[in-house]
Write a structure and sequence with these properties.
Shape: globular
CATH architecture of the largest domain: 3-Layer(aba) Sandwich
CATH topology of the largest domain: Rossmann fold
Radius of gyration: 22 Å
Helix content: 25-40%
Strand order of the largest sheet: 3-2-1-4-5-6-7
Number of helices: 13
Order of helices and strands: EHEEHEHEHEHEEHEHEHEHEHEHHH
Distance between the termini: 31 Å
Largest sheet: 7 strands, parallel
Structural class: alpha/beta
Strand content: 15-25%
Number of strands: 13
Number of domains: 2
Length: about 400
């Protein structure tokens, strides 16, 4: 039996209410996307919007102000399978929901829950805001089996076309995604907006930890083996840099596939690479601030949509030098514009090694001891400022009247 829809326990008189649908929501199983949702939900009440959060029940500790729905497909099943089951559970939940809301917001991916939300908003005559944290049919990294690639080619475009006319605002989080979706759906182009990811100032201490002067530490935050990211070239680059006299050590945060350890063993770098597994966001930020150099690896894409790694904003706020390995595009543009010191070598072991050696020599001379943070970051990419932008979109939709 589906339980009736419960009002948020934090609802304050005079607040407008938003049904906030987020499959991944801390302490959920999807860290990166969940941070965007968690920060929006945290700051929205400051702008007179009270969210009622509905999220996946992935076995995590319950919170009074988050409604957790189980999926008929277990949460540890493949991501795509679980999301369709959860969309069905959400549809059943919304069908019995009697609460009053002013607007519905859906965070994607995954994407099927947006269709369930569209059915609900159409029935209740509510504005629908869909936030594409990543592109759907235009995903630049369409990995997986032949079956999954067929879904990207045939099913996903059809589902996306069905969703677009029912959406009052589509949010894209990179400039290239906004431009490409506006070109793909010109009739809905004026209902699209750019709202990037960012960093949470609460996670950054007022007194930044000083990087070690005893060892040269590279740090990579995030998982290899997805999004086309491979550690092979950076591992070979470290080997060549060590042969050139740079005693570099690489720390990798995040749960990694078994293949990464195999590649480390094959490179003979067991003494130079440390896999630390998944850590809480505040600890990851502290380690970023204390690293000698931050490593960002991005795979090339055949699509016009260019992804921007969520950690890019944290890297920039940490103010450490960045070793950025990847193609030109939105992600690298951010680094070029806002990093105090960066290297952008070609994705080739020799070029990576030369960049590491240059950074290592600067570190040995005592350079880059201070954190270099662009003041413009706080105005453009701090999570509270981004939430102000989101709430302004909500206010505008309500001012337009019933869709």
């Amino acid at each position: 039996m589906v339980r009736p829809c419960l009002p948020s326990l934090l609802t304050v008189y005079g607040m407008r209410k938003v049904l906030f649908i987020a499959y991944d929501f801390p302490p959920g199983i999807g860290i990166g996307g969940g941070l965007r949702s968690a920060n929006f939900a945290h700051y929205l009440p400051e702008f007179s919007w009270q969210p009622t959060v509905v999220a996946l029940d992935g076995g995590q500790k319950k919170a009074a102000d988050v409604i957790r729905l189980s999926s008929p497909t277990p949460w540890h099943s493949p991501y795509e399978m679980t999301s369709y089951g959860w969309a069905y559970a959400l549809h059943r939940y919304l069908r019995n929901c009697s609460d009053d809301f002013d607007l519905v917001y859906v965070s994607c991916p995954p994407f099927p829950q947006a269709l369930a939300a569209a059915t609900f908003t159409r029935r209740r005559q509510l504005p629908l805001v869909v936030d594409f944290r990543d592109a759907w049919s235009l995903d630049p990294y369409q990995e997986g089996s032949r079956f999954k690639r067929m879904l990207y080619r045939y099913l996903f475009p059809s589902m996306e076309r069905h969703l677009m006319p029912q959406t009052d605002l589509l949010i894209l989080n990179t400039p290239s995604a906004l431009q490409t979706y506006q070109e793909l759906y010109p009739l809905q182009a004026d209902k699209m907006a750019w709202l990037p990811n960012g960093y949470d100032k609460r996670a950054f201490p007022d007194e930044m930890p000083q990087p070690s002067r005893d060892e040269f530490v590279l740090l990579h935050a995030g998982r290899f083996g997805i999004g086309g990211r491979s550690p092979v070239n950076i591992l070979t680059g470290i080997t060549l840099a060590r042969q050139a006299g740079c005693d570099a050590r690489l720390v990798i945060l995040g749960n990694q596939p078994d293949a990464v350890q195999t590649q480390i063993d094959a490179a003979g770098l067991d003494d130079a690479i440390e896999l630390r597994g998944q850590v809480e966001y505040p600890r990851a930020v502290a380690e970023m601030c204390a690293a000698s150099v931050l490593v960002l690896v991005q795979a090339p894409s055949q699509m016009t949509v260019q992804a921007v790694a969520g950690k890019t904003f944290d890297y920039l706020r940490a103010g450490r030098p960045i070793l950025a390995i990847g193609p030109a595009g939105d992600n690298m543009d951010l680094i070029h514009q806002h990093a105090g010191r960066y290297e952008h070598p070609a994705d080739e072991p020799e070029a990576i090694a030369r960049a590491i050696v240059r950074l290592c020599k600067e570190w040995a001379r005592g350079e880059h001891v201070k954190h270099q943070v662009d003041p413009a970051l706080s105005e453009r990419f701090e999570r509270r400022a981004l939430t102000a932008g989101l709430s302004a979109h909500f206010d505008r939709l309500l001012s337009l009247g019933t869709p």
